[in-house]
Amino acid sequence: MPESAPRRKILHVDMDAFYASVEQRDAPELRGQPVVVAWRGARSVVCAASYEARKFGVRSAMPAVRAERLCPHAVFVPPDFVRYKAVSRQVREIFARHTDLIEPLSLDEAYLDVTTTKTGLPSATATAEAIRDAIREETRLTASAGVAPNKFVAKIASDWNKPDGLFVVKPHQVEAFLAPLPVGRLPGVGKVMEAKLAELGVSIVTDLRALGALALEQRFGRWGRRLHELAHGIDEHPVEPERPTLQISSEDTFERDLPLSEVETDIRRLAGKTWAGYQRELQRNPGRIARTVVLKLKTSDFRILTRSLTAPHPPSGEAELADLASALRARVDLPAQTLYRLVGVGLSGFVDEDEDAAMLQTDLFDGEDDIDDR
Description:
The protein is of the alpha+beta class. It has helices at 18-26, 51-54, 64-70, 81-96, 124-139, 151-158, 174-178, 191-199, 205-211, 213-220, 222-231, 264-284, 318-327; strands at residues 10-15, 35-37, 48-49, 75-77, 102-106, 109-113, 143-148, 166-168, 247-259, 288-299, 304-310, 339-352, 364-368. Helices cover 35% and strands 22% of the residues. α4 packs antiparallel against α5, α10 runs antiparallel to α11 (222-231) and α12 crosses α13 (318-327). The radius of gyration is 22 Å and the shape is globular.
């Protein structure tokens, strides 16, 4: 960022236990109860848990059966995304009174750049307070917010005083704020990277700083340089109001775990749903095409794998998408007896249609990730 440019003032606003809070708001008998938003059953996962349920260890993305074991007296409520989306729109309208620089991350959280605001409030802190007050008054829900000079510090800060909290990290406080945090709080540092850093004696951000930029870059390449920047609170990524579509996908959980050889019918069905979504995206953004086919699988022990193919030409239709996704099963190298509980089909790698073909990747590539159950 040029020295003459004003230092950014970023908010991260996160609704508190959003889906569960909407349910408790609309059904007074649920208030104070451990509410779990999920369908019951062996194949279901938790969409959200109220703070009363979280005291028992219930978390989102957890299997519903495990949630029921942890909190046998929990009240299970099936999700109602129509209502949640309506409330999300209300909250988004409140944001828009203050700034047009809004980057939604999901229905219940967003980044806002309030370096300059429509309201003329004297500070980013005052803006965050005004937004939280309006959310409380107009939706009868609470939100937590973090205020910081950049996005990733604001996101960490918003979690600091949850629920219904506000935490401010001023520019001169950033390094001290980050210093004692586990390295897993830095964006992009998952369990695998945490383990690699632990081998180097790194557990908190201060340890990471001590390694130095050169050592990190020698060990991890460009990602090492990025780790060094994050450890010092450096992040110049702007708030992006119009985030381009990165992936269109459909997935489904089976009624019973299946071997890989028996999922082709489901792959073809999901390819049809993904292709329909892709056609809607093309209507909104003509000339922007997806070139990468993605197959997602989740094993019976909740390990997530993805296999991807970027071909010289994008899929020409639903049938070709289904063929390519189905063929990606051959790139899964787990034992044949492995069982799977979920499959998904996606399209990604969006580019403009007139982009220089020489710039496009034409190689096969694949990836494999463990589930990140936070």
